[in-house]
């Protein structure tokens, strides 16, 4: 069977599978969207959209999300390292393929909300790439939630093979950690549910959040980087597992339909610009 036909058949079969556990009606209290850096590539096709938009530059947003639930603070992702803020020219990586800036350090944004790193009780990271785990060491006192496969890759013998930089998250080695093999309901009431979405990395995960006014939102991590890739189910060239990447997108598409949820694509700058950022809260 030709590759395109096979992928179409897999997509049809996946649509027949359950998306995940039924979720309760409980909500978190509120969520803050924090600006955790920006990145720019001179050629988006070099990795993110292979064969499409060749030679076109693209700007990416990079957000973290602080979630209040009762007396607990959950932080989803930690963004680029605050240390980059000392370099206004930015930091280049991958032989100039990507330049990163931090113009609003995470700690300052938290402080403006009256939150210190030690106040964060729960930490979940979509995956261990440096634009999502850059400030992870600040939150080692929190209870950490990770997929077992991601943990094994990050703390195993060769984390650089997955594009990970252990110095950014090494302190989490001593944290109280719940290692997962699939979905996980953080607060036990369906208001914030980790969704297993492997493919970009071995144990990539996304987060479904139920807000009291806006409703259900799925935070994408790097399951997908921008809307056009979502619509085309297009997989970046450097993803760990292409087939798993497509399966994860199909699974989330079903869940979005069933739960009447929005997909917030973390790195889509145009979409991020239309979401209220801290100090405003999203409810």
Describe the structure.
There is one protein chain. This protein has 283 residues and is an alpha/beta fold. The protein has a single domain, classed as Metallo-beta-lactamase, Chain A (4-Layer Sandwich). 21% of the residues lie in helices and 25% in strands. The chain has 7 helices and 13 strands. It has helices at residues 3-15, 106-112, 130-133, 148-155, 227-232, 242-259, 269-272; strands spanning 30-41, 58-69, 72-76, 91-93, 98-101, 122-124, 143-147, 177-180, 184-185, 192-196, 205-211, 215-219, 262-264. The strands form 2 sheets. An 8-stranded mixed β-sheet has the order 4-5-1-2-3-6-7-8. The protein has a 5-stranded mixed β-sheet with strand order 9-10-11-12-13, with helices on one face.
The radius of gyration over CA amounts to 18 Å
Report mean pLDDT, rounded to a whole number: 93
Shape: globular
Strand line-up across the major sheet: 4-5-1-2-3-6-7-8
Calculate the terminal CA-CA distance, rounded to whole Å.
48 Å
SSE run? HEEEEEHEHEHEEEEEHHEH
Helix content: 10-25%
Give the helix/strand class.
alpha/beta
Please report the number of helical segments: 7
Summed up, the domain count is 1
